[in-house]
Amino acid sequence: EEEKLSLKSDFHEELLQSLPKEKGWITQYLYLYQQFWYRPTLIQPTITFQKHFQAKHDDIVIASLPKAGTTWLKALAFATMKRHHFIPSQNDHPLLHSNPHTIVPYFETNIGDNPSVIPDLSTLPEPRMFGTHLPFPSLSNSIHNSNCKIIYICRNPFDTFISYWHFSNNIVPSPLPTLTLEEAFERYSEGIHPFGPFWSHVLGYWKASKDTPNKVLFLKYEDLKADINFELKRMAQFLDCPFSEGEESGGVIDSIIELCSFKKMKELEINKNGKALDGVENKYYFRKGETGDWVNYFSPWMTEKLSKIIKEKLSECSLSF
Ligand code: A3P
Q: Atom 9 of ligand 1 has which residue's CA nearest to it?
């Protein structure tokens, strides 16, 4: 029913009917569009974005699979990029009053009310910052052809899966059922999850980061957790706004890390009780914020199965988890 309500045009309905579908998460079905799985409501806005979005050379795109650490990366990139305008240590910083998904909106979900029309984004303050879960090949040509920069965050697929399982069960609209861990795992390990398959998504950005390292920066959630100072400096360098020695000794890096820390963000009023642009309660973006939580959920057969799949699918790259 949810899908039916969301059908905005005959064209959309026709398109959906022509696409392969499988049982979904959060929505009844997921649809295969350009080799990735989508919630039905995202297909029309994605097409609109692909056709009409005009990138500017200094745009910054935060790309990820859901639950890879997007919220954290959006906050870090915004705080870093705009640090001369919004002082990270001051208590009127936008990140203290708005959720990162409001500040750095998604192309495919948050932009505009009419999914067939792209609003005028030319007046947004520059550099403009956007988020996306779209796979690399499906970004608009304008992004591919401009000098804008993309930062991708990837997370160990075990943790990404557990995080997404919790998240989707929290936001699933009634009367759709929540999924058991086994049901969700079954779909995930076949690559059937929003913006999946996991491996194709990761590989697309990974390859792009190897081919065009000045355009795509590939980060890992685990690396950020292990050494945020180092990774933040790398990010600033990539964004052509490296921290000066004076900034470093003056505590700017530390202020950004503190401002964007899980503990700090989770406790903010806006993240406890507010809602993001798509109506999702902000609190669901902050669960545990740890690496390795998956061991509390996976049984030995699940670990074996997913390890094997990931090893096989990612064999052509040097990524390991
Ligand atoms: P867990 O469910 O494992 O806790 P996304 O932002 O891509 O939706 O990913 C959400 C995951 O990132 C959740 O993982 C969430 O707790 C974690 N997260 C959110 N904000 C974070 C932060 N500031 N630092 C570290 N992890 C964070």
A: 67
Q: What is the pTM of this model?
A: 0.95
Q: For a substitution probing ligand 1, which of 133, 165, 285, 298 has the most ligand atoms within 8 Å of its CB?
A: 285
139 and 47 in contact (C-beta within 8 Å)?
no
Q: 178 vs 99, 171, 175, 300, CA distance in Å?
A: 26, 9, 9, 23
- Is the CB of 272 inside a 6 Å radius of any atom of ligand 1? no
Tokens 């740890």 sit on residue: 290
Please tell me the residue having the least CA distance from ligand 1 atom 26.
289
Strands 149-154 and 216-220: parallel
pLDDT digits (tens, 9 = 90+) for 216-258: 999 999 999 999 999 999 999 999 999 999 999 999 999 999 9
The residues annotated with a catalytic role in the active site are 133
Going by the DSSP 8-state scheme, the letter that residue 94 receives in this structure is G
Alpha carbon distance 127, 149 (integer Å): 11
CA gap 290, 72 in Å, rounded: 12
